[in-house]
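Re: your question from the hallway

Yes, I did run it. Sequences:
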Amino acid sequence: MRKKIVAGNWKMNTTVPEGVELAKAVVAASAEVPAEVGLIIATPATHLCPVAEVVKGTRVELSAENCADKEKGAYTGEISAAMVASTGAQWTILGHSERRQYYGETDAKLVEKTKLALANGLGVILCVGETLEEREAEKHFDVVKAQTLNVLDSFTAEDMKSIVIAYEPVWAIGTGKTATADQAEEIHAYIRGVLAEKFGAQVADDTTILYGGSCKPSNAKELFAKPDIDGGLIGGAALKAADFIGIALSY
Ligand code: 13P
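Structure:
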């Protein structure tokens, strides 16, 4: 049975002391959340070490927001998967639309990043999602399929045990404009079908597919009630522990 996960993506928010306080507040409130719901917080790279200390021995898992497409060496400013893993983090987000849009993240780079993340024992939250123009042109199914397969073609059913997909329609991120539960379910079910075609029904059934894009306590319940929506990747609302936990309590 696939795992339900609520993950917070802090993006480029909070200073280190603020992030440590936020992590402490999430840990403090996490006991209320049903045990079968996994909780992950993805912090800026600067926060991973101190936040790892805060979440150590708790149910809250830690994620990076990105890692490098190279193993190590002369790549100034980059942070390798091995470095991320050495902080105590168990996960990394990869392929977020903001990285695709602003930092030239291509599917080819994502293959390398995913390989390195898995090789270093990290779970991967792989983000896919169409832009508003693509949805209006009714290309959203094709775009999401291509983003999913362009990366996952290089991986095996065994690798899929460490990979979570996050469907994040770009037009819903930070806009307050959530996909309706039906719109999200339609794509989630489609992605699961793509996974079934590639890896078989069992892998498709076991893969957690998260929804991201203006998810908040007031709309999470309706989204999470859908059969193919296995949780959320939360941006803005993850910056307040009460809202983040409120979303996780929607299960
Ligand atoms: P918002 O929840 O702020 O729309 O962000 C979603 C997101 O991009 C999570 O990765």
